[in-house]
Design brief:
heterodimer, A: 265 residues, alpha/beta, nine-stranded mixed sheet, globular, B: Rossmann fold, 3 domains, five-stranded parallel sheet, 11 helices, flat
Amino acid sequence: MKIVVCVKQVPETANVRINPETNTLIREGVQSIVNPFDMYALEEALRVREKQGGTVTALTMGPPQAADVLREAVGLGVDDAVLLSDRAFAGADTLATAYVLAAAIRKIGGVDLVFMGRQAIDGDTGQVGPGVAENLGIPHVTDIRKIERIEDGRLTVERLLEDGIARLRLPLPALLTVTKEINVPRLPSLKGKLAARKKEIPTWKAADLDVKAERLGLDGSPTQVLRIFTPPKPSGGKVFKGTGAETVDALLTELASGGISLRKK
Amino acid sequence: MDPIRVVAEKCVGCGLCVKACPYDAIAVADGKTAVVDLSRCTVCGACVEACRRHQAIVITKRAFRGQDVKAYSGIAVFAEHRRGKLASVVPEIVGAALALRGQRPPAGSARPAGVAAVLVGKDVRPLAQELLSYGVDEVWMVDNPSIGDFDENVMAEVVADVVSEKKPEIFLGGGTVVGRSLMPRVAARVLTGLTADCTELAIDPETSVLRQTRPAFGGNIMACILTRDHRPQMATVRHKVMDAAPRVENPTGVVVDMGHIKVPASRIEFLEFVEEKTETVNLTDADVIVSGGRGIKDPKNFALLEDLARVTGAALGASRATVDAGWIPYSHQVGQTGKTVKPKIYIACGISGAIQHLAGMKSSDLIIAVNSDPSAPIFDVAQFGIVGDLFEVVPELIKRLKAG
């Protein structure tokens, strides 16, 4: 089984704050991390390898320092890692990103299964996975919460939807995006950390891939950011202070005056 | 040419851009002029915004040629359905499309912009009638037994063919699990731009291009995105944000049978669907939600909130912190990476109101917050707040509501 996991380096957005004077992001002190959803994708790939045998390759597109997330993946136990880095890739939207990732997966060759996290926490789009599958001409299923089995070249999976779970079967090769419910990611081992330090990570540029220049980076991206702004800060409402009885009383009185009842109808 | 550059004559070296860059890709090394490190830059535009006063940072994108933008007109929406029912997001995106049609520049030379629904699947004819009742002008229908409910791969091929034939200028889908799986595949097939999970759509009055606004960075910032040169302009729309189209009494729209579109064989075999029915989980459709955050201190204390949920007839929600801590399953999570909800009443207990949580609930009709920290951001979005110990307030509230 030849498995590829696509990972992304992202700013730790939970800590991103806004400067109220300039209305801009305060980046200072914000760490770059492996996109949290991708940790579940890596873990699932390793579990599949442990059961089925084969290799796991971690793949990322980004600036040279994105190699850090690949080293983390090596620390967890992936066999190989490839960095896609070229100035020509800069400014890629999801269409252009999916195009390049798919070209790299084709170059790796003979890939049976591609894993991704359901979305990255900086863009929150979740669009690259299905886009890669379309570029590769293979089926995809998003929001996988469980792989039940893999046998005879077919996967049985559970997909998480708004109102329930769909159980589906699909042939390999395929692309899956995973939710946080699928597993509990492992921590890197000491041996893995040492291996990660020594691991040679090749960088592939545009020239190394079978790609058309006009489909790369900003020029290959139909969407364009017109502007970025801070959402207007809401002003807040009425606040009650005091003992439990006083505050609840004040709240219920206020609601009653507006004709609102909290009681179940 | 580099996609982004600093105009040295305009740059004053103030460093606002340096602070704004989420990727640490810009620096004022010599104290005078900002320099972009292209190996790090993702051309996200945050610095351009920060430099609005000086306008010293310019993003240059080569115009795409080869597509006749003028050949496209009208607005189409993807009519998602499952097990014989339209998804609840569909009337909302029809509503958004009808609103956009109203914003078009006055007709003159321009062709009238219709609103159409793309309906593909098995035995979907009854749904076509329902769609017409929301006021769409046309339903583009491919009724074919080979299109299963859970196969966006086949759906994408069919929808892409419909869109390529009908050439709508704008194509919207729901920001649902299926919509966010299907639409990227369609966009990659027809090679156009797609903006995820928009919370605001508007037509630019000058260029008539669709302005697609969406939260990013966990809701910390909003981005306004355009697809200038490619058609259709595609977007998914966040559930529970847009106002649903009202039913019209005498629908005038028509069903256009597109049975000639080829349907490929499915590679995805549907085994079963297990509905999650528990009363407390169906957050997206709940009228009242009682939600708990880290302030409840212990997973056992969700029982207290369940009591409150029972007397108020509410569904039970939770913040990401409690889900990440394993206190409650993910299906309860409200927020940017969980569910977006818009109940009539949202009662937040012990939730500080991280921006990513607010992104998922702030459009609720009425928000009531209970928190011991008076500076908690949840109070900014709450119409009514109680500063106090929730273990005192919530039992009191339950007592009063039970007392009748």
